[in-house]
Amino acid sequence: MVESAPVKIINLDVLKPHKPDIIEFGKAIEKEKSVSAVNLQVYAIDEKTESIKLVLEGTNLDFESIRKIIEDFGAVVHSIDKAVIGKKEIIDFPEVK
Q1: CB of 83 closer than 8 Å to CB of 7
Q2: In this structure, what CATH number is given to the domain that contains residue 39?
Q3: I need a surface site. Which of 21, 32, 34, 89 has the fewest CB within 10 A?
Q4: What CA–CA distance (Å, rounded) separates 18 from 71?
């Protein structure tokens, strides 16, 4: 059996209702024990929803627990756009244009 490597950073694209706002939404996610920092940014708004970029950091993020919190707010993960996994830091990819 392969030992599981720690997940340190996850970037998500999330579609959520307008309520709660991103501050309340982010605080709820930050309470999850594996999360040490949350960064949220709204990049699109329509009549009933907003699309946000959600960056999570921790020493070993529990993605399934985080996804449950997101879904409990009526939101959905559209995609996982980035993940940093392993015991040491690596140089990041250059920005894709």
Answers
A1: yes
A2: 3.30.70.1340
A3: 89
A4: 14
